[in-house]
Amino acid sequence: METEQRQIAERLETAASLLERTLSRLEERVTAVTALSGDVEKISATVEQSRREVELAEKLAAAEQELVALKAAGAPALVNPLRRTVPASTSEMLAKHGIAEGPVDVRALDAALAGLSLEQRIAVKTQLLRAGAIA
Question: Which one of 1, 7, 41, 88 is least enclosed by Cβ atoms within 10 Å?
């Protein structure tokens, strides 16, 4: 009877060790599956990002085509569309030399600016160019 009990105890120990091994293998598989699902999320995010890039590329191509169409239609190019006025000091200086508002004659402008330094002449001409007074 004692031998039978020992054999049963040995079988139970063997079964318990096999169950422990099986449990550890199952835990490893669960860990591996969890890691793989994380990779799948990363892959799907990459696919979503590439779709967004395609959409943006299409919008860019449409904008470029519209720009080409506008240039072909002869739309006037504005140097600085936000600023359309000349500073008061520039207007006063030009008025002293008989140059009124509106399109400025380049020769008259050069004569009016003769007393200024090179940097000041460039600054005044740049202001007038931004305001659209000279072309």
Answer: 1
Question: Hey, is 93 helix, strand or coil?
Answer: helix
Query: Which residue has 């054999």 as its token pair?
Result: 7
**Does the model's pTM come out above 0.85?**
no
Q: Which amino acid is at 91?
A: S
Residue that is written with structure tokens 């969890």 in the block: 34
Taking the CB of residue 126, how many other CB atoms lie within 10 A of it? 13
Structure tokens given for 59: 């919008």
Report d(CA 34, CA 29) in Å as an integer.
8
- Spell out the long-range contacts of 5-12 with Cβ–Cβ below 8 A and sequence spacing 24 or more: none
* Domain range annotation of the chain: 1-76, 88-131
Contact 79, 130 (CB under 8 A): yes
Mean pLDDT over the full length of the chain: 78
Give residue 96's pLDDT.
72
Its sign, for the CA torsion 73, 74, 78, 82, is negative
Confidence band for 20, pLDDT divided at 50, 70 and 90: very high
